[in-house]
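Subject: Protein record for review, amino acid sequence with backbone structure tokens
How to read it: Take the token row as a discrete description of the fold.
Enclosed: The protein record, placed directly beneath this head.
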Amino acid sequence: MAEQAEIRNAWTEIAPEYDEFVTPSNIAIAERALRQVDLRPEMRMLDVAAGSGALSLPAARAGAAVLATDISPAMVDRLEARARREGLSNLKARVMDGHDLELEDDTFDIAGSQFGVMLFPDLKRGLSEMTRVTRPGGRVLLVTMGPPSEIEFLGFFIEAVRSVVPDFTGLPMDPPPLPFQVSDPERLREELADAGLTDIHVETTNHRLEFESGTQMWDWVTASNPIGAEMVADLTAEQKAAAQTALADSLSERSGGSGPAVLNNVVNIGVGTK
């Protein structure tokens, strides 16, 4: 329980920035993922570890009856605010730990999670819970990050900090941090199979992110996950400012000095049938 409280508090702390910077950037990949499960109006869909709604919002816009769950009350509040602004009465949200869903068996046509269950300390349990609440014949959907070496935003960020702090270590990789525990498509396929799912399909695709400035990208990375903020917590204000300037230079080089810089990031979209 202490670990879950720590996780809840960490996500609650970054919820305002996550909602502002990250959620809008993740909607396009969610729309692609939802096409993989043939989402249709009137279907019942569950979104686990929903954040402030990058997967839930496009599902509700498509006419599905969506229940979004997240361990952080602040994330749920922001998701509900987004639903109200759009008049999405078919999107409901509840505070809930995805390791132990307070929901009946065989309830949903689709249970999905985008960049959520991939972070769980007990991913197997999270997938098992998603499968339990999905009806027979329904689909389970996971969207996960690909290998760290194929995540350009991470490489740009770490190199910018290293240009200021040469001994900056970045992310520890032995073992890989939780966001990358199913970055290998075959590992993701195995986890879906271990959850009892069949007709499994894993697509590797590109998550295209656009950044207008070094400051914007800094805010995005440090709000995207508690790990992002932790990586640079010990930097001074001067070091952070210098790293943002280095990021701006790298982004300008990528864009040719005109318009936003486009960074490409490999993601996996895994689907299985109960």
